[in-house]
Amino acid sequence: MASRGAIPDREVKRLYAVSGNLCAFTGCEQRLCEPGDSGEPGVVTGEMAHIVAASRQGPRGRGVLTDDERNSAENLILLCERHHKIVDRRPRTYTVDVLTEMKRRHEAPFLAAPAEATAAPVVSETLLSSLLVVSELPQQIRSAPYVAASPKEVAATVRWDADEGPVAFITRERRLFAFHDLRSASGPFARSVDRGAVESLTARDLCSTSDGQRWYVELLNRTLSWHLRSLGMRFDQGHNRYYFTLREDGSSPRMDYRSKTGRAMSRDVVRPNERSALEDHHECRRAWRGPCRRSLLAEIAEVAGLSEPFGDAFAGLRRRPARSGPGRGGPGGDGRRWWWGDLGPGRAE
């Protein structure tokens, strides 16, 4: 391969423009330009490989091309460092034809003409919130080094009852971030941080980096979670949602809200007389394993003409819901059929 200086800048720009900042090797998703962060410049990790080598002594160098043609964008393919080494050290596997087709497939989406954009119709909508009214977002974030030996020990130093509002924080890079004034000697984090090394950031400054934006969002989420817990709500991780729970006395929380028409409304948010299907399931299992199971088996034995002890007679006993209707229930008229797993379906009569 020829030196970088031998390739005209115009050809370099053309190659990068049609490569989409990705390695052209089939199946590789390696980005070739890493953005800068925290005042550091971006880094270019991509490498230009010749399909027909820049010199006749190089890999795949026997092609009949002029020097200008060898250093044109049509004869160059943009690769990551790893795949550049692979294609140059295996010229019999990655021939001129193979690399030309690889380049064509990779660049095709970036060379295609964009579809003609059509203006979306403007629609006026009213956004309704059924849970919370968001009036503003915190604009100041404070950070300071925490004094605990590890992030897991920070929570033990927080005075959770020192503030009536949400007490939320995150720890990153040996520092604690919060919306509270960390310099306060009576605040929830007075024992958690070095109050003489507090730094203040605006939300805009913190969100100017990708990491800072994630930290700000996480701090907002933790603050919101604290507020929702104070309303008697819990988080369902399986379904990624919050839900209300009954009070300790078994009554339902009552929430005030506004309807779509703007009327002030109030309603109970939990129905105390309803049980979940999961609670019913567990209660049935407990009942079946306990005295109820023994009673049901005794009833079946009486109908079937069997006597105790049952021994292994009921070892394969199963049950299933029967179709509704008179006379279709099993013993006891509970709408279930009984059968032995080894003998197939059959009612005890």
**Shape descriptor:** elongated
One letter per element, helices H and strands E, the order comes to HEEEHEHHEEEEHHEEEEHHEE
Strand-pairing-aware structural class = alpha+beta
| Share in helix | 25-40%
Unreliable stretches, pLDDT < 50, 5 or more residues? 1-5, 306-349
Residue-averaged pLDDT, rounded? 76
Radius of gyration, taken over Cα atoms and rounded to an integer in Å: 35 Å
Number of strands: 14
For the biggest sheet, the summary is: 4 strands, antiparallel
The multimeric state of the shown protein is single chain
Strand order of the largest sheet: 6-7-5-8
Strand-residue proportion: 15-25%
How many helix segments?
Answer: 8
| CA(first)-CA(last) distance | 89 Å
Give your account of this protein's structure.
With 349 residues, the chain is an alpha+beta fold. It has helices at residues 9-17, 67-70, 81-89, 96-111, 203-206, 210-230, 277-289, 291-304, and strands spanning 33-34, 43-44, 47-50, 76-79, 140-145, 170-172, 175-178, 199-202, 233-236, 241-244, 254-258, 264-268, 317-321, 336-340. The strands form six sheets. The chain has a four-stranded antiparallel beta sheet with strand order 6-7-5-8. A two-stranded antiparallel ribbon has the order 1-2. A hairpin with a 2-residue loop joins strand 6 (170-172) and strand 7 (175-178). The longest helix has 21 residues, at 210-230. The termini are far apart.
